[in-house]
């Protein structure tokens, strides 16, 4: 039984029948009796004063129930969940973030009014009748220029648009390292802004019940309890016992559905005000200007090396764009999820990083698949590749020479993190072999005969997942705990319902967690059901992001199972008239050591609920346990990604011809799901490297890539058939050994791709290309290259 | 989408009548451009006259030395047509490159031509192959039909009924897709016709046009190198996020060379 469906088995996803046959229940599928519809009127300007709003015509339009503006809104603003302190000890600037703007709009898409009507079309028609008198103001868009004196100001309290000016590491030790360097490699990089583009646009249904005074919010969220806490306690002042948040099937999140959004608060608040359930669903164009966006860093970095290519010190200066407001977890992304990763897999002894966060008149930026770690990995792996070229060292050798050796764990980096395990040589060796690295020059020569420029690039990366422990993140500014919960309810006949605080929106938890519990309790997989996404059903939990679900949420389930087994063992001992210490649990059976006495798990479960022959004075009836797990540390997945590209010099088209990913994600429960997660991450990473880019007009602040006509999503024919493998070293501090897999693909791949593009163009003397390496950009690099193509 | 009156005539005469009686009437064929425009509220016609009920407007037939395609014929039908594939394979291949499967199953040749999107594929076929546009009023030569950005020679109340393509001696279309939309960033159709070499370019600027410099180079020497050797003036091309005028100009020569190679 366990061999076919237990830990390590490639069980097909149980949720797929539902999803593939269109039987999922997404937020927009939920319809409440007497439901009305909401439409949000959004700002067409990046920066403008609202001189006046006249809603009288809209209010008189057919079907309109209410037209609500900032003047009507009497509740709290959207909170930020992480507080960073600047170098000088001052707290970050935290501007007000009302769900409806009152006097000023600060990005295209900012919320100006909510129209509630009998139908969505009527709400939208009425919104056209709202007369807003905007006085347009100059806008600041550019990340690099936002902090310059004289730039238009987003917030009066944020001088020079600075939100915070933070640092980490030892400046003097780093300066000393540079002073004795044999060589210094310098690089300037832009990690471009991305738009998450989950397949399902955001949606929210607010439902106030007059009879009970209860509020229910159905929403596209990765963490319903977090939304209940933030919206209930900070925004609308609804106590938890009167507020239920349900995140049903959710069609992808990638981070963008972590955050508490204005629309969630607005439909909940307005439902109470008008006494009707209200549904709002984003149109795709709306998602482009209202979903939190990702990345957007401008960095300068310097690496000091000795004569043998050993890293002595690293200096990084990053400007991070926060957008117009602080989204829920925005401040931790460029700081504790970025700068703490700058040691990577290397023994660099001295690191100093400065991060300045700036406001601009753009959509807020927050965590997006990888969140800070792709930015750190891109910076480091571009820098290392450049250093190798400058010092005429082999790309593999420079990495090997600086790897943290596998016997050095636990390893303390100079930027706060302590890695628990890893074997970077092993993942590198396997990736080199799978990619036929040593044979590459033959392939380059063959491609040249066909008139193509072929290149290979490598990235040896590390990331940190399962952000924790709560006490540590609290000391770093988190305004929440980062544990996870799990409950296991054993039913009288031995089947089991699992309640998890994590949320599945594409990750396959209903399968993976069922395998974990089926394996742990020795019961068939089909006897396990996984419940998530409803605050009225599940214990308080923090949800799914940062590749935490298995390592943190799964560990909570293991702890709950431990409690179940401990109690069941006592019941079994009673039934078999043995001492509990002599009873063993294995493969679903309780046995007495040294005897042939054995009873199955199901019989113990039945006894717990029909306690006729039961140690009732010592044990309560029933078999249901809850556990909360607060990790001791982050987990540290890592590995090697190798990308091989071919460039058509006439058109500038870059084709990824081979991609090899060898990842150490710790214990694998379901290898098929792990492979799928890596594939998805690689698609997004390659998408960032070659295709995706969010562009605003620098003067007007209009989003130029506001639809799929201009924002290039990766498609199947942009991607090769991936070669992926895992090589596990176990996480040493959680009971599963799992490290997390959700983000590795998106973190490790972008520098591998760009390093490959630069390698392909290197014969022409090209040394740099920025993401995304579009056909236009590559063609321009070839046109302006120091050396010309030799005729094919 | 705003409200509109909907008409579904069963013949062209009734369609013209419905259009004439409307305050601000619009014809809908496949709706691949019009429907998104309506949904985004960028257009608000008073009436829509749907041509999908007019059976006569659809179909492909061999006629004389070429192929005649009804205005309401879907791209997918053209792509799959054995008559088109045997007479003008380049036209079937071009149709297969339009949009995605859904667009090809819905979009029509007449709709594409009447809309005259500057990055659409069909205008390159019509101009490059020297086709004739047939309407309810007259026949219009390709060289006279396209009048720049979303502008055509069609008059008020004039409806495209069919397009006649003469069979070329050889022809090929090469498309460089804009990475996001996959419309043509540059698409070039090269044809050897009875009247000489024709090279039509879409995606370059304010509408499809003939690249006369490449036509004369190819007339002298029909080789990829001859096409590649022509340097077009970037001033004649537009620029956007996906392509500068210089890039577009260079792509025309490259795509023309590849089309010549495929001829």
Account of the 3D structure:
The complex is a heterodimer of chains A (792) and B (263). Chain A folds into 3 domains: 16-22 and 483-629, 2-Layer Sandwich (Aldehyde Oxidoreductase, domain 4); 31-137 and 199-252 and 257-287, Alpha-Beta Complex (Aldehyde Oxidoreductase, domain 3), CATH 3.90.1170.50; 294-467 and 633-783, Aldehyde Oxidoreductase, domain 4 (2-Layer Sandwich), CATH 3.30.365. Chain A is built from 19 helices and 28 strands. In chain A, helix 9 packs parallel to helix 18 and helix 14 runs parallel beside helix 15. Chain A is globular, with a radius of gyration of 28 Å. By secondary structure, chain B is α+β, with helices and mostly antiparallel strands. Chain B folds into 3 domains: 5-49, Uridine Diphospho-n-acetylenolpyruvylglucosamine Reductase, domain 2; 57-166, Uridine Diphospho-n-acetylenolpyruvylglucosamine Reductase, domain 3 (2-Layer Sandwich); 170-262, Enolase-like, domain 1 (2-Layer Sandwich), CATH 3.30.390.50. Helices cover 35% and strands 23% of the residues of chain B. Chain B has 12 helices and 12 strands. Chain B has a 5-stranded antiparallel beta sheet with strand order 4-5-8-6-7. A 4-stranded antiparallel beta sheet of chain B has the order 9-10-11-12, with helices on both faces. In chain B, strands 1-3-2 form a 3-stranded parallel beta sheet, covered by helices on one side. The N and C termini of chain B lie far apart (45 Å). The A-B interface holds A 121, 125, 128, 285, 650-652, 691, 695, 704-705, 708-713, 774-776, 779-780, 783 and B 1-2, 40-41, 176, 179-181, 183, 241-244, 246-247, 250-251, 254.
């Amino acid at each position: 039984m366990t061999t076919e469906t237990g830990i390590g088995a490639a069980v097909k996803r149980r949720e797929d029948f539902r999803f593939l046959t269109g039987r999922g229940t997404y937020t927009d599928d939920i319809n409440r009796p007497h439901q009305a519809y909401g439409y949000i009127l959004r700002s067409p300007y990046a920066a403008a004063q609202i001189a006046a709003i006249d809603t009288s015509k809209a209010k008189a339009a057919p079907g309109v129930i209410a037209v609500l503006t900032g003047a009507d809104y009497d509740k709290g603003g959207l909170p930020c969940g992480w507080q960073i302190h600047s170098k000088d000890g001052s707290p970050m600037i935290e501007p007000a973030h009302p769900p409806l703007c009152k006097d000023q709009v600060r990005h295209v898409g900012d919320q100006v009014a909510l129209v509630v009507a009998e139908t969505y079309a009527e709400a939208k028609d009425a919104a056209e009748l709202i007369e807003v008198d905007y006085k347009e103001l100059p806008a600041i868009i550019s990340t690099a220029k936002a902090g310059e004196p004289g730039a238009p100001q987003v917030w009066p309290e944020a001088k020079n648009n600075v939100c915070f000016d933070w640092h980490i590491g030892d400046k003097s030790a780093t300066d000393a390292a540079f002073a004795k360097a044999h060589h210094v490699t310098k690089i300037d990089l832009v990690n471009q802004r991305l738009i998450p583009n989950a397949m399902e646009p955001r949606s929210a249904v607010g439902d106030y019940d007059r009879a009970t005074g209860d509020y229910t919010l159905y929403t596209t969220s990765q963490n319903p309890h977090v939304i209940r806490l933030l919206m209930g306690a900070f925004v609308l002042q609804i106590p938890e016992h009167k507020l239920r948040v349900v995140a049903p099937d959710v069609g992808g999140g990638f981070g963008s559905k972590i955050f508490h959004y204005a629309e969630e608060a607005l439909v909940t608040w307005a439902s109470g005000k008008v006494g009707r359930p209200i549904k709002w669903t984003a149109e795709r164009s709306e998602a482009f200007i209202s979903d939190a966006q990702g990345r957007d860093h401008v960095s300068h970095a310097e690496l000091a090396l000795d004569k043998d290519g050993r890293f002595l010190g690293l200096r990084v200066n990053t400007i991070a764009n926060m957008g117009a407001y602080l989204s829920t977890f925005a401040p931790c992304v460029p700081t504790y999820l970025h700068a703490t990763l700058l040691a990577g897999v290397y023994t660099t002894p001295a690191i100093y990083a400065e991060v300045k966060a700036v406001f601009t008149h753009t959509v807020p930026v927050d965590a997006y698949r990888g969140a800070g770690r792709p930015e750190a990995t891109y910076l480091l792996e571009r820098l290392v590749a450049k250093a190798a070229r400058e010092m005429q060292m082999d790309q593999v050798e420079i990495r090997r020479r600086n790897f943290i050796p596998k016997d050095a764990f636990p390893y303390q980096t100079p930027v706060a993190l302590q890695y628990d395990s890893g074997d970077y040589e092993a993942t590198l060796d396997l990736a080199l072999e799978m990619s036929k690295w040593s044979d590459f020059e033959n392939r380059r020569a063959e491609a040249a005969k066909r008139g193509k420029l072929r290149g290979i690039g490598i990235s040896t990366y590390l990331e940190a997942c399962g952000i924790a422990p709560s006490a540590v993140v609290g000391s770093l500014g988190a305004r929440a705990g980062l544990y996870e919960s799990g409950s296991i309810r054993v039913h009288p006949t031995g089947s089991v319902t699992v309640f998890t605080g994590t949320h599945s929106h594409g990750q396959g938890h209903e399968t993976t967690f069922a395998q974990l519990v089926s394996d742990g309790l020795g019961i068939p997989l089909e006897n396990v059901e996984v419940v998530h996404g409803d605050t009225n059903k599940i214990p308080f939990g923090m949800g799914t992001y940062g590749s935490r679900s298995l390592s943190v949420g799964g560990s909570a389930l293991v702890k709950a199972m431990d409690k179940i087994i401990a109690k069941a063992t006592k019941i079994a001992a009673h039934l078999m008239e043995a001492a509990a210490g002599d009873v063993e649990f294995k493969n679903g059976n309780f046995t007495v050591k040294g005897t042939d006495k054995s009873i199955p798990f199901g019989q113990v479960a039945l006894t717990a609920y029909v306690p006729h022959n039961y140690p009732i004075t010592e044990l309560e009836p029933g078999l249901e346990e809850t556990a909360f797990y607060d990790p001791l540390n982050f987990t540290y997945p890592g590995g090697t990604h190798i990308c091989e590209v071919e460039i058509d010099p006439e058109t500038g088209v870059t084709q990824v011809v081979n991609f090899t990913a060898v990842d150490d994600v710790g214990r694998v429960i379901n290898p098929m799901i792990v492979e799928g997660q890596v594939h998805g991450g690689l698609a997004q990473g390659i998408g960032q490297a070659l295709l995706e880019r969010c562009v605003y007009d620098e003067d007007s602040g209009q989003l130029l890539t506001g639809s799929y006509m201009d924002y290039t999503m990766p498609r199947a024919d942009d991607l090769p058939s991936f070669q992926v493998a895992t090589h596990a070293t176990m996480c040493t501090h959680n009971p599963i050994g799992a490290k997390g897999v959700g983000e590795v693909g998106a973190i490790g791949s972008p520098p591998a791709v760009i390093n490959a593009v630069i390698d392909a163009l290197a014969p022409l003397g090209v040394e740099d290309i920025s993401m995304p390496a579009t056909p236009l950009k590559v063609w321009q690099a070839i046109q302006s290259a120091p050396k010309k193509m030799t005729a094919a | 989408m705003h409200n509109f009156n909907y008409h579904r005539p069963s013949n062209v005469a009734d369609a013209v009548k419905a259009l004439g009686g409307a305050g601000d009437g619009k014809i809908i064929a496949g709706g691949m451009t019009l429907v998104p425009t309506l949904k985004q509220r960028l257009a608000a016609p008073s009436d829509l006259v749907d041509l999908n009920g007019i059976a006569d407007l659809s179909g492909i037939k061999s006629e004389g030395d070429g192929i005649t395609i009804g205005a309401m014929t879907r791209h997918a039908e053209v792509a799959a047509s054995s008559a088109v594939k045997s007479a003008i394979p380049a036209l079937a291949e071009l149709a297969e490159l339009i949009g995605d499967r859904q667009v090809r199953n819905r979009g029509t040749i007449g709709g594409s031509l009447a809309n005259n999107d500057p990055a659409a594929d069909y205008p390159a076929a019509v101009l490059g192959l020297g086709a004739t546009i047939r309407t309810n009023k007259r026949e219009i030569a390709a060289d006279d039909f396209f009048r720049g950005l979303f502008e055509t020679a069609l008059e008020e109340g004039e409806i495209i009924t069919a397009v006649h393509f003469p069979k070329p001696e050889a022809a090929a279309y090469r498309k460089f897709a804009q990475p996001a939309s996959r419309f043509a960033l540059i698409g070039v159709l090269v044809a050897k016709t009875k009247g000489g070499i024709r090279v039509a370019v879409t995606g370059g600027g304010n509408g499809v046009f003939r690249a006369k410099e490449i036509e004369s180079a190819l007339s002298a020497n029909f080789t990829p190198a001859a096409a590649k050797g022509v340097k077009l003036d970037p001033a004649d091309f537009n620029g956007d996020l996906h392509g500068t005028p210089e890039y577009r100009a260079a792509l025309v020569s490259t795509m023309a060379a590849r089309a010549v190679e495929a001829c």
